[in-house]
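2 proteins. here.
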Amino acid sequence: MNENNLTFKELALIDPLLRAVEKEGYTTPTPIQAKSIPSLLEGKDLVGIAQTGTGKTAAFVLPLLQRMTTSKRSSNPGFPRALVLAPTRELAAQIGESFASYGRFLRFRHTVIFGGVKQNPQVRQIKAGVDILVATPGRLLDLMNQGFIKLRDI
């Protein structure tokens, strides 16, 4: 696969994701996306390293959303189906925005949780049910210890 002139369609992304990528103004995948999306769509584990601004978030968000679409499972309150850990609240918020953008034509619920703010609004969202949880480690552990989040469905 020559990643230099590859299209997102050639990466075998489903139509709702292709529409979202187009709406974001992207025409061709970056090298990290071209290398990682096919492997992640196959369910393989991956460690990727690339500079800031090269599309690393889309490189894992797009295949995660696609794999969730083909899964028959549904989310239950307090039991997210996917977990993304982020080291800072800023990065967690950015990743959450990516899920909103790329998932705009899909019916997944996501939320972002982090410390330094009141937990009650976050707990309400979790109790309402989320498919994808983006979290910083401290707040995740805190809400798990309080019994609000269980990871058995991940």
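next one coming up
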Amino acid sequence: MDIETLARIQFAFTISFHYIFPPLTIGLGLMMVIFESIYIRTHNKLYETLARFWTKIFALIFGIGVVTGIVMEFEFGTNWATYSRYVGDVFGSALAAEGIFAFALESAFLGVLLFGWDRVKPWVHLLSTIGVFLGSLFSAIWIVVANSWQQTPAGFHIVGEGINARAEITGFWAMVFNPSSVDRVTHVWLGALLAGAFIVLSVHAYYLLKGR
């Protein structure tokens, strides 16, 4: 088995494991917003209990997603250094946008979400939950845009030749709205929301069966 095949297998395992977690953070984010909103509106402690419970699960899933994502980022350089250099200008733009507009937003509110219970007003905590949810949605946009560009590239030209060739953006919005990006983002969003809903249903069904 050659090195390229081994690199493909390693990256396939890494990204397959990593991709379990980001969609769940999106789906659970929405469920937490729903539970917390109902609690603030009705003052029913049941929904506060649900929101607190799923916040703990969210924190665990978010942490695993970040760690596995970092491993995947390293593999871009260790396994696919030449390809990373070739698409660096395109990927760099998408990932920079994700870091500035999405991950920063998510991280800013995450501390309040996890540690703000009983320390801030309920509506402030709800805003932090909404901020984390929106941040996860925006993160998905830019990651999927980068992936979509690989499948249906647009808004770029190739500079240089041979090993020194690299892709250079000629139109940022053409790159963002490449032929498959909208379909893929929509697919990921809907899939993530369904995944979050089904994991909540599954866990609640288990507790009901156990009479808890």
